Structures are given as structure tokens and as C-alpha cells.
Amino acid sequence: MRKFFHELAYTCHKTWVLLTRDMSSNPTFEQKVDIFGGHFRLGTGDYIFQSSSPTSTSGGIRYIVFLRDPLVRYVSGVLYQNKIFGRIESLEQVVKKIKDHIVNQRKNDLYMKKSLTYLLMPAQRDRFMDKSTKAKAMLAIQNLHKYNVILGMAERMPESLAILRHVFLKSGVETPLKDKAEAVFQKYGIIASLAKNGMGNHTAPSVSAVGVHENESSGNNVSTSAVVAELAKDKEHVPLMEEYIKYERMITDFAWIMHNLQYDCVMWEQSTADRTNE
């Protein structure tokens, strides 16, 4: 998605910056940056942009969060670590490593909590350090709702891009660069026939989006989907695995509700505009 936002900003003559560290208030940054992205905590922009407010209707920051199935995200993370460290492991080795890690985590009453690294606000990180994983997950859900976050789901990339297109390219608002920006959305996976699915139908067409790929283990092409499929075969281990990721899944389930509502609103507005133009 970094490539998408970089190309969209460049096409629209906007400034896009990748944040690699936490930042405090920065008037120069606020004046010159239109879009900032990266792996940072929800609410980080509130400390950078003095005009930002979670209840602001103009001039504030709108946060965009992309999530995916927690098990897929966990497996993808393992394979990504293999890739960057040059570890060559077979499918069987990867699966065993994941199972052993989950067993060890649950023995210590630990849960997967990767999303909490980003969905808890900076001020909440230390304040709620001693709270349970469940309490933190519920707080993360509250944050998604509080900020009215734009929710993209990796499993529904065309739908997610349709929501972003609605935000960045307002219906009925024509600009000299709109056609070029439209081409960027087309390139990265949104397709014209998407609207034909209609409201309430969240099975998006299958497309090959640029820059959206499965992680693979370095050297031997062990894919995320292959590992997930292999893990699902062990019926005895599946309940433990689901227990380990249950709070991540709680967050993702809520995110799906927000995503589907946002997509339905986009499709409703589009269908209304189409009827008006007939």
C-alpha cells in the first residue's frame, strides 16, 4: 500500500511522507505534508498536527487502517522474518515452528496482540500496560470507532480501494488531475464493475492488485496460504491456535463491520448519483 499512496500523492501533486519514528508537534511538517503513512500508533498525528481532533469535521486528520485475517497476518509475519534474515525453512519446519510458538505462548497465558502496537494511542501505551489483552483489545475497538477510521481489509482490496477512491476523489467534484488519479486506483486493483456487486454483497471480484503479494519464505517459496492450509489440517491444534488469536480476531471482526458499512455507504451514494444522472 505504500507504493499506492506514494504514487497517488505524486500524481495529485501532494506530499507523502513515510514516518519511521514517533514525532512531536511540528509546524513545518503540518504545513507541508498532505499524507503520512507507516507503522505508527493510531492518534500519532494528533501530536504532530495541532489542528487535528478526533471529532474534527474539517482540517483534522482522517486515519486509514488496513487489517487482515489475524492468522494470515501472523503466518505472513513469520515468513517475512525468514525472508529478511535469509532463513531457508521447509513448509514442515515453518508449521512446526508456529505450532511450538503458540503452545509456548498459551502455556504462559499469552495471546497474539500485534494490532495493539498500532491501535492503542501513544498516551494509552503506558497507562494501560498492566491491563489484560482483552481490555486492550476492547480499547482498540473503541479507538477505531472514536476516530471513525477508514477501514481497508486486505481480503477485499477492490472494496477497500473503492472506499479510498470515494474519500480522495469526491463524487461530482472535478479537478484537472482527477483522471490521472483515477488511473492509479485502476492500476492498484479497483475495477469499474465493482459497483455491480451491489450493496450488502461483499464478495469482491478476484483481481491481481499491484504491490499486494503473499509473503514467502526465503529461498524455497513457502507461501502464507500453504502454511495456513497446513495448520488447518491439525484438528487438535486448531482450538489452541484460535484461542491464541482470539483477541486479534475480535478486533478484526469489528473492523469488518465498519468496513462493510463504509463500503455500503459508498455504493449507496454511487447508485444514488447514477439514478440522478439518468
From TrEMBL:
Gene3D superfamilies associated with the record: P-loop containing nucleotide triphosphate hydrolases
InterPro entries with a match to the protein in the record: P-loop_NTPase
Domain of life: Eukaryota
Source organism per UniProt: Cyclostephanos tholiformis
Protein name: Sulfotransferase
